[in-house]
Amino acid sequence: MTDTTVAAYAAATPKAPLEKTVITRRELRAHDILIEIKYSGICHSDIHQVNGDWGDGIFPMVPGHEIAGLVSAVGPGVTRYAVGDRVGVGCFVDSCRTCENCVAGQEQYCTGGGMTATYNATDRDGEPTLGGYSTHLVVDENYAVTIPEALALDVAAPLLCAGITLYSPLRHWGAGPGKRVAVVGLGGLGHLGVKIAHALGAEVTVLGRTPAKRPDALRLGADAYHATGDPATFEQLAGRFDLIVNTVSATLDLEAYLGLLRTDGTFVQVGIPDQPMVVSPFALVNGRKALAGSMIGGIRETQEMLDFCAEHGIGSEIEVIAARQINEAYARVLASDVRYRFVIDAATI
Ligand SMILES: [Zn+2]
Ligand SMILES: [Zn+2]
């Protein structure tokens, strides 16, 4: 088999609408698998990268790092997967494999040149990486994960970025029985945080800007919902939480939120605002509070997350779209008009 030409949706230049095109996927190397993509989630970060919000991107850009599909061919050295297997690919497709973090299964924090992002990055062979808004993907078997039979591929796709982004900090900071967890923001990330934290056995509170999403939050498994637009919320919930996970990518009043932590509580940032946030050290020292961040998760932990979600019946709430609706979907994501993740049906590409 040689390089293959496959269909994809790409932005030709920064801010350009996504249009149908053809791209090349590399010939299978010894440990590569070819994936026939079935579904690809739309992550808010796709829009940031297409728009060049996070610096110069590599164009033409094929976004997509919430990929679910079936193995359709394997290289001669592949041992982990066979043709027909249900697999997923998340935010990265390679890393150095030898640094302390890679060895520990935390490839997302690779110190040997950083993880190789699934798109908008330069692969270790010098070629640009192209993501999941496509019919096929070639990836090293060590950077794919198994999607359990119990999870439908469409609702599983967003777990590969949004799901692991919440699962990893919830596990790391011990969300579970007896712990009070707050999820700030009920969007693509937050709604999965609620489901996962609830399944882990924690008491879950959603902090949303307005009361609008209260019914959804409770339906998804939250025990309580409070509107942060109401100043009384911050008095009422003072000192309440062991863990707050902030999924919002706009700046907020950090000190007000730190006031909601109990002693030894942790505030974890997973959303990425484009402006710095200010915090007084007093807000941390009084109560031995921690301000932390977390970025996706490693391959082993992503597999653990998928197995956990399968066991607990957790998938993303999705709206499946045809590829020709991608640009419209982007506009709706920016308007927060999605409950809670768009997923592209790759058969329409
Ligand atoms: Zn993402
Ligand atoms: Zn590494």
Structure in words:
This protein has about 350 residues and is of the alpha/beta class. It has two domains: about 210 residues, Medium-chain alcohol dehydrogenases, catalytic domain (Quinone Oxidoreductase, Chain A, domain 1, Alpha-Beta Complex); about 130 residues, 3-Layer(aba) Sandwich (Rossmann fold). The chain has eleven helices and 17 strands. The strands form four sheets. Strands 3, 4, 5, 8, 9, 16 and 17 form a seven-stranded mixed beta sheet that branches. Strands 12-11-10-13-14-15 form a six-stranded parallel beta sheet, covered by helices on one side. Strand 16, helix 11 and strand 17 form a beta-alpha-beta unit. Helix 4 packs across helix 5. One zinc ion binds next to helix 2. Belongs to the zinc-containing alcohol dehydrogenase family. Its EC number is 1.1.1.2. Keywords: Metal-binding, Oxidoreductase, Zinc.
What's the gist of this structure?
By secondary structure, this protein is α/β, with parallel strands linked by helices. It has helices at 44-50, 100-103, 153-156, 162-172, 188-199, 214-220, 232-236, 254-258, 282-285, 299-312, 326-334; strands at 4-11, 18-25, 32-41, 67-74, 86-89, 92-94, 116-117, 136-140, 145-146, 180-184, 203-208, 224-227, 241-246, 261-269, 290-293, 318-321, 341-345. Strands 3, 4, 5, 8, 9, 16 and 17 form a 7-stranded mixed sheet that branches. Strands 12-11-10-13-14-15 form a 6-stranded parallel sheet, covered by helices on one side.
